[in-house]
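Model the whole thing, not chain by chain.
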Amino acid sequence: MISELFSVTVLIGILASGIRLATPYLYAAIGETLGQRSGVLNLGVEGQMLLGAFAAFYVALTTGNLWLGVLTAMIVGALMGLAMAIVTVNLHAEQGISGIGFYLFGLGMSDLLFQKLLGTVETVKGFPPIQIPLLSDIPGLGEIFFSQNLLVYLAYLLVPLSWFLLNRTTLGLKIRSVGENPDAADSLGVSVARIRYFTLIVGGTLSGVAGASLSIALLNVFQQNMTSGLGFIAVALVYFGSWRPVGVLGGALLFSLVNSLQLWIQVLGIPVPSDLAVMMPYVLTILVLVLTVSRVRAPSALTKPFERAD
Amino acid sequence: MKKFGTLFSLILIAAFILSACGAPATQAPVATKPFRVAVVMPSATTDLAFSQSMYDALGRIQTEMGGPSAFEFVFSENMFVVDDAAAAIRDYATKGYDLVIAHGSQYGSSLQEIAPDFPKTSFAWGTTVDTFGQPNIFAYEAASQEGGYVNGVLAATLSKSKVIGVVGPIETGDAKLYVDGFKAGALATDPTIKVNINYIGSFSDVALAAEAATTHIAAGADIMTGTAQMVVGAIGKAEEKGVLWFGTQSNQTSLAPKIVVASQVYHWEVALREIIKLIKSGTLGGKSFAANLGNGGEVIEFNPDYQLPAEAKTLAEQTIAGIKDGSIKITLP
């Protein structure tokens, strides 16, 4: 049974599953990375994802237009990000608590809308897998990397894009300086408030897409509380990836690959109790976190509301 | 300031006294009071699974008894936080409902604490057989291995690849019974068949349930089943790949009419009818009820749109009859 784990079918299966499972984490965690690099911890990701997932599903179901669904999810996420920005930047509210508040809002609101507008679980025709010409014909690799749906590809594209934004643009420099030393940034004429508004709105938009990637690309159903903690894992992945897009990618892939590995371990009937198997990705994540911790410190101004000293 | 405080509390006290006096006077004498039931459940009434099975059963009881004037029910859904559920149970008991149902085995210890405080209220909880020896607690459970067995027999008959995938939540209770029964049924029909079982460790993680289904399909499964509310993710994947599905708890045909063959549906009204009758005659608890194929508490509902071969249908009916008359014994691990 153990030897079956190393067969080609299984290895391809593990990698392809891992890449799919990592998709929503990537959107949400990269959005969260931007926010945290500018000094705001947003614990409302899960709520933004749920509302985004519902919005995308409902619009796709009623109009049949998937892109309109994604767009609605983006707008809903952006509005949630905007609200978070008003509360934490203008009103100086404690970030952790307000984030939890937005999570609960998203959880309850998506549930309410689901009950009122749909009432029961339905399916929608979501983004189909795209076979990239030639590349998808490569045995093994084709199935793993080049036969996924469009939102999966875009999620991975986001990693270099966000890296470029953070490290190679003036805007990225401003984001980082606002997260490290808002007073200095402010004295040099960088608007701390404007930067934080920007990162929170972009972060919310990406969380909305994370939800859409579940409801109209990967699963094609909506159910109450369907993210079930995914948004919180995304926040953890930002710490895991030491606030860097590439690190976040590594964390998301590790977590997802181990998750798909444990699915296969059970399917192949390898005698590991299911309770232990499902624990694997979490245990491994904690282990890696413990072993690599303290190499990189968090943005200095993280969770601190900025108030201009006159 | 202190004076104001005293005055304020005096007004409050006066208001309370007045409202307390007012209440009985406004209450009109009612000839026939409806039987009132409150239920607390862990997921949504539309989950196509555990919570919906109870919600649908209460609706059927209401129709049977003659509508809301004879039978009234209220519910709190999505009570996945046990503390919130406990508060709701206590609230309902305080409001004088005839029967308060805690629909979820996770609510047991809360109920054990609450029930003695309301000796005149009847409580029911499931799925379990344990009434805690309390005179006002009923218990109910489903012999879900029975329907699981029937589904397993059918699955083994229909499978061409001889690999079947099962997506379960957590390896315990009702879910484990169903899965074990399913496996026993499949293996009794074809001892060489492979039944791959996957417990994903969650009742709500739709994404992981979907990926578990994809894994089963990659491992060669052409038939799948699963239990609990997160299986909607798995059903979606099954539909995408044209893999057949067997449902349980509620009728899951509506979600994927092309691939659902049959669902084991819980008809809790079998237990509810007995419980209501007992309460009306003055017995508030102390008994446990089991829903099974024999007493109609479990029904195998076939999807009319799926063309089930006649011999398979006959085999299913023979299996159901065999379980009912005891000629088929289900041995669980």
